[in-house]
Amino acid sequence: MRIDKFLKVSRILKRRAVASDACSGGKVSVNGKSVKPAYQVKVGDIVAVGFAGGEVKFRVLSTNEKVSAKDAETLYELV
Protein backbone atom coordinates (compact mmCIF):
# COMPACT_ATOMS: atom_id res chain seq x y z
CA MET A 1 0.00 0.00 0.00
CA ARG A 2 1.22 3.53 -0.72
CA ILE A 3 2.48 5.46 2.31
CA ASP A 4 0.09 8.38 1.72
CA LYS A 5 -2.90 6.00 1.62
CA PHE A 6 -1.66 4.14 4.72
CA LEU A 7 -1.42 7.37 6.71
CA LYS A 8 -5.01 8.21 5.77
CA VAL A 9 -6.47 4.71 6.35
CA SER A 10 -4.71 4.40 9.72
CA ARG A 11 -6.06 7.84 10.74
CA ILE A 12 -2.55 9.20 11.46
CA LEU A 13 -3.41 12.05 9.09
CA LYS A 14 -6.99 13.00 8.24
CA ARG A 15 -6.74 13.44 4.48
CA ARG A 16 -4.73 11.73 1.77
CA ALA A 17 -3.81 15.09 0.22
CA VAL A 18 -2.32 16.20 3.55
CA ALA A 19 -0.40 12.91 3.77
CA SER A 20 0.89 13.38 0.23
CA ASP A 21 2.02 16.94 1.00
CA ALA A 22 3.77 15.75 4.17
CA CYS A 23 5.68 13.12 2.18
CA SER A 24 6.61 15.59 -0.55
CA GLY A 25 7.74 18.08 2.11
CA GLY A 26 10.18 15.60 3.68
CA LYS A 27 8.20 15.15 6.91
CA VAL A 28 7.70 11.39 6.51
CA SER A 29 10.49 8.83 6.70
CA VAL A 30 10.47 5.03 6.54
CA ASN A 31 13.32 3.11 8.14
CA GLY A 32 15.31 6.34 8.44
CA LYS A 33 14.94 7.48 4.82
CA SER A 34 12.71 10.28 3.57
CA VAL A 35 10.06 8.91 1.18
CA LYS A 36 7.75 10.15 -1.55
CA PRO A 37 3.94 9.60 -1.48
CA ALA A 38 4.12 6.55 -3.79
CA TYR A 39 6.49 4.57 -1.52
CA GLN A 40 5.12 1.06 -0.93
CA VAL A 41 4.96 0.52 2.82
CA LYS A 42 5.39 -3.06 4.10
CA VAL A 43 4.64 -4.86 7.36
CA GLY A 44 7.50 -4.27 9.80
CA ASP A 45 8.53 -0.85 8.44
CA ILE A 46 9.28 1.85 11.01
CA VAL A 47 7.59 5.10 9.97
CA ALA A 48 8.29 8.55 11.44
CA VAL A 49 5.97 11.51 10.79
CA GLY A 50 7.15 14.97 11.80
CA PHE A 51 4.69 17.48 13.25
CA ALA A 52 5.21 21.03 14.51
CA GLY A 53 5.17 19.76 18.11
CA GLY A 54 7.39 16.73 17.60
CA GLU A 55 7.45 13.38 15.87
CA VAL A 56 5.33 10.23 15.88
CA LYS A 57 7.13 6.90 15.30
CA PHE A 58 5.31 3.64 14.70
CA ARG A 59 5.77 0.13 13.29
CA VAL A 60 3.43 -1.08 10.54
CA LEU A 61 1.54 -4.22 11.62
CA SER A 62 -0.89 -4.57 8.72
CA THR A 63 -1.63 -2.97 5.35
CA ASN A 64 -5.34 -3.79 5.24
CA GLU A 65 -7.16 -1.17 3.14
CA LYS A 66 -10.65 -1.84 4.53
CA VAL A 67 -10.56 -0.84 8.21
CA SER A 68 -13.22 0.87 10.29
CA ALA A 69 -12.34 3.99 12.26
CA LYS A 70 -12.42 2.13 15.59
CA ASP A 71 -10.06 -0.59 14.27
CA ALA A 72 -7.58 1.80 12.62
CA GLU A 73 -5.18 1.50 15.57
CA THR A 74 -4.68 -2.20 14.78
CA LEU A 75 -2.66 -1.24 11.68
CA TYR A 76 0.30 0.07 13.69
CA GLU A 77 2.00 0.16 17.10
CA LEU A 78 3.80 3.16 18.54
CA VAL A 79 7.56 2.76 18.99
TrEMBL record:
Gene3D superfamilies: RNA-binding S4 domain
Single GO term (MF): tRNA binding
Family annotation (Pfam families): S4
Keyword line: Protein biosynthesis, RNA-binding, rRNA-binding, tRNA-binding
Keyword Nucleotide-binding attributed: no
GO biological process assignments: rescue of stalled ribosome
Record domain RNA-binding S4: where: 1-65
Domain of life from the UniProt record: Bacteria
Protein's UniProt keywords contain Isomerase: no
Family: Belongs to the RqcP family.
Free-text function comment from the UniProt entry: Key component of the ribosome quality control system (RQC), a ribosome-associated complex that mediates the extraction of incompletely synthesized nascent chains from stalled ribosomes and their subsequent degradation. RqcH recruits Ala-charged tRNA, and with RqcP directs the elongation of stalled nascent chains on 50S ribosomal subunits, leading to non-templated C-terminal alanine extensions (Ala tail). The Ala tail promotes nascent chain degradation. RqcP is associated with the translocation-like movement of the peptidyl-tRNA from the A-site into the P-site.
Subunit-level organization: Associates with stalled 50S ribosomal subunits. Binds to RqcH, 23S rRNA and the P-site tRNA. Does not require RqcH for association with 50S subunits.
Protein name in UniProt: RQC P-site tRNA stabilizing factor
Lineage: Bacteria, Bacillati, Bacillota, Clostridia, Candidatus Protoclostridium
